[in-house]
Amino acid sequence: MEFHDLAAQYAALKPEIDAQIARVIHKGHYILGEQVEELEQKLAAYVGRKHCVSCANGTDALVLLLMAWNVGPGDAVFTSDFTFFASAGCAPVVGATPVPVDIDPRTFNLSPQALEAAIEQVLREGKLRPRVILAVDIFGQPADYPQLEAIAQKYNMLLLEDAAQGFGGRIGPKRAGSFGHAATTSFFPAKPLGCYGDGGALFTDDDSEADLLRSLRSQGRSPEDKYDNRLIGMNSRLDTLQAGILLPKLEAFERYELAALDKVARQYTELLQGLVETPILLENYHSAWAQYSILVENAAQRSALQKHLKALGIPTMIYYPRGIHQQTAFADRHFEDALFPHTCSITQRVLALPMHPYLQEADVEKVAESIRAFLQTQF
Ligand SMILES: *Cc1c(COP(=O)(O)O)cnc(C)c1O
């Protein structure tokens, strides 16, 4: 059994993917070729934003947006404590200060209450200017945007949606990638929509912001004269090959993969009910199921369960074993665990199960049955 099964996906999409790769090689336009433009248009339409600007990866997408917003020294970027490192690591790249915030224990997403308390604390200290709320759609479920938007408005801050895991998720009809002032995503192979290497994208409704991002991803060059560089940007573009690979994958994602993920999640939740804590979706929220993560009682039970499953050929992962506030890179900030009670609890108890659109019903049954058998031997 595979945790993510990219080989099964390739087997299903081989003719289309191979044809796209051949097309790119035949044309020889490897950087920002025609497939990149086609993909950007399709992604913008899917997400429901006016513009999509692709780039080299999801981390660069975050940095490019902070650059476009002129975020820098003295600015505070508030983000979830329970996320992939890049959601916090992007801020120091532009000279800004990340401020990790504890999570909602139901969804594992940024807690609006804890966020407001953290903003008030930064205002009281008077050293940093609250500039950006960087919300993450953890494991595929969109963050609480109705409340986060109200907080952004109240404190006159910019709201950034990190939809690296959320792409495909939605609140009602509104899709991930369309929340906040702008959004980013990643096409790292294991993300809901992944390519065969690194890739990323930004989403915005603002025409001049989209132009600025296009300039910043190409060394800050001017749109009229490519050898006149008006800004300091970076080299962060999406390869045409990756765009070609993403086109048929996006089609499959829309046509059946997302529905297949939903079906696997429903089956897991039904079979695991009463055994472990299963993911909680808020009303009207739809996950992209970047991960299907359960909660067990404690770290000791988790490692025993993980070992038990591994022996049966069932791979599991721990996303994430530590909070942002516990990262060595931020050791000089001396964050106290007591400020992050929910992250501290979840990081000890969370376990991600095999999850992908090609997972068979029998596989899900085997995973659930193996968890049940393990828990029965516990007492
Ligand atoms: C993967 C990920 C990123 C970074 O994306 P890369 O393409 O790997 O640079 C950023 N934020 C979150 C929440 C992610 O999961």
How many strand segments? 12
C-alpha-based Rg, rounded: 21 Å
- Percentage of β-strand residues: 5-15%
- SSE succession: HHEHEHEHEHEEEEEHHEEHHEH
User: Kindly state the mean pLDDT as a whole number?
Assistant: 97
Taking the sheet with the most strands, its summary is: 7 strands, mixed
Q: Percentage of helical residues?
A: 40-55%
Question: In terms of structural class, how would the helical and strand content be classed?
Answer: alpha/beta
Ligands, deduplicated: pyridoxal-5'-phosphate
Tally of helical segments = 11
Q: For the largest beta sheet, what order do the strands appear in spatially?
A: 1-9-8-5-4-2-3
Quick description:
The chain is of the alpha/beta class. It has helices spanning 6-27, 34-47, 58-68, 86-93, 112-125, 145-154, 207-217, 240-272, 299-311, 341-349, 361-377, and strands spanning 51-55, 75-80, 97-101, 129-136, 158-162, 170-171, 174-175, 182-186, 200-204, 285-286, 292-295, 350-353.
What key phrases describe this protein's structure?
379 residues; alpha/beta; seven-stranded mixed beta sheet; three-stranded antiparallel beta sheet; globular; binds pyridoxal-5'-phosphate
Q: How is this structure best described in words?
A:
With 379 residues, the chain is of the alpha/beta class. 43% of the residues lie in helices and 14% in strands. It has helices at 6-27, 34-47, 58-68, 86-93, 112-125, 145-154, 207-217, 240-272, 299-311, 341-349, 361-377, and strands at 51-55, 75-80, 97-101, 129-136, 158-162, 170-171, 174-175, 182-186, 200-204, 285-286, 292-295, 350-353. The strands form three sheets. It has a seven-stranded mixed β-sheet, with helices on both faces. Strands 7-6-10 form a three-stranded antiparallel β-sheet, with no helix packed on it. Strand 2 (75-80), helix 4 and strand 3 (97-101) form a beta-alpha-beta unit. Helix 1 runs antiparallel to helix 8 (240-272), helix 2 (34-47) packs parallel to helix 8 and helix 3 (58-68) packs across helix 7. It is globular. The site of pyridoxal-5'-phosphate has 15 residues, from helix 3 and helix 4.
